[in-house]
Design goal:
Structural class: alpha+beta
Number of helices: 4
Radius of gyration: 16 Å
Number of strands: 6
Order of helices and strands: EEHHEEEHEH
Oligomer: single chain
Largest sheet: 6 strands, mixed
Shape: globular
Strand content: 25-35%
Strand order of the largest sheet: 1-2-3-4-5-6
Length: 162
């Protein structure tokens, strides 16, 4: 993105593409996100993981701020569709800090992800969520996502996994 400011919204909320300058704030949110998904807190590993993403350019992290303070993020990974010969974005991570919830920040992040996909000529955004994460499912459906009933998802675990 040439313009860092991605999507300014009312009530003191902005969403912008994060860069290495945002690493410390993004790492704190990323660590909290992992804890939400029952992982042990490891801020150093979170920082290293995101630093590698910034260095390689293999992900896009959109960072939400509320009144200038980090409030949440969405992380997108690129993929491709061989059939359509177009880009796909995998919306892999969405998180809003506990103190910033119920302000529409999740919706703003989802909108920013959609806008990023459109600007990069992607054919679609894809995401998965746990079956019991009904709060997130309701948000996704409000944002226009449709639950896939055509395809099954299969997973082959390689190595150790958290």
């Amino acid at each position: 993105m040439s313009n860092r400011k991605h999507n300014a919204v009312g009530r003191g909320v902005t969403v912008a593409e994060a860069t290495a300058r945002d690493l410390e704030e993004a790492a704190a949110l990323f660590d909290a996100y992992r804890v939400f998904y029952r992982q042990t807190s490891d801020i150093a590993a979170a920082r290293n993981f995101l630093a590698e993403r910034f260095r390689r350019g293999d992900a896009v992290l959109l960072l939400a701020r509320h009144n200038g303070n980090p409030a949440g993020f969405v992380q997108l990974y690129p993929s491709l569709s061989s059939v359509s010969m177009k880009r796909i974005w995998i919306l892999n991570d969405l998180y809003v800090s506990a103190g910033a919830r119920r302000r529409g920040i999740g919706k703003r992040l989802m909108d920013a992800a959609r806008d990023h996909a459109a600007k990069t000529d992607a054919i679609r955004l894809e995401l998965t969520t746990e079956h019991n994460n009904t709060t997130a499912q309701a948000l996704y459906e409000r944002c226009g996502y449709v639950r896939d009933t055509l395809f099954y998802k299969y997973i082959l675990t390689i190595g150790t996994q958290a």
